[in-house]
Amino acid sequence: MITWKNHFLYQFDYQHWANDQLFDSLDKLSDEARKRDEGMAYKSIHGTLNYLLATGLVWSGRLRNEPADYRHDQTLFEDWRELKLAHKQTMRQLQHWLQNQPPEYFTNEVTYKGGTGKPQTNWAHDILTHFSNHFAYYRGQVSAVATRLGAPAPEMDYLLYRRDMQDTLANARQAGG
Fold first, then answer.
1. DSSP state of 101
2. DSSP for 48-87?
């Protein structure tokens, strides 16, 4: 039986994997192409990924009850490699933090200061679902623009992630004897 906790641990592992698929594709573009205004909500691929990082840090702080004050239009990293590394670290840190939470955390309410400065309350599992869907939504936008610019289309489907993980486990078992 899968628990909310296990579900979200898988989801955050998937987020990490999907980001890697996207980053591998984006590595094929020039820095100029990643930073060019392509009419996206946060203008460029680079700007959108800065937005996602800021959003990830804000929600991570809210979940931990350690508010983080970032603006959605804030450029956290100009350098592509630093931006990718920060994404990877942020996702893994949140995943490890969630792993250390008791199962009941995922069915509790979380109160945090919203964007308007007023306290808001939501279920932890709803916040985590929003987080996962939000990242998938913007990864899709970035992927579409990157593909139009000549990058290979990244395969980021959840079921591909699950197959990849099953293959990895099967290979590890086979290698272990």
1. S
2. HHHHHHHHHHHHHHHHHT------TT----SSHHHHHHHH
Q: In angstroms, rounded to a whole number, what is the distance separating the alpha carbons of residues 145 and 153?
A: 10
| Both structure tokens of 37 | 């205004």
Q: What's the pLDDT score for residue 177? A: 59
Q: CB-based contacts of 66: which residues, under 8 Å, 6+ apart?
A: none
pLDDT in tens, 142-167: 999 999 999 999 999 999 999 998 88
Helix (H) or strand (E) holding 17: helix 4-26
pLDDT interval class at 170 (50, 70, 90): confident
Per-residue pLDDT for 125 more than 80? yes
Q: Domain spanning 4-171 has what CATH number?
A: 1.20.120.450
Specify whether the CB–CB gap between 32 and 39 falls below 8 A.
no
Q: What are the strands, taking DSSP E only, across the chain?
A: 109-113, 119-123
Q: List pLDDT tens digits, range 34-93.
A: 999 999 999 999 999 999 999 999 999 999 998 888 888 889 999 999 999 999 999 999
Q: What SS3 state is found at 13?
A: helix
CB 59 within 8 A of CB 131: yes
Joined tokens for residue 24: 């591998």
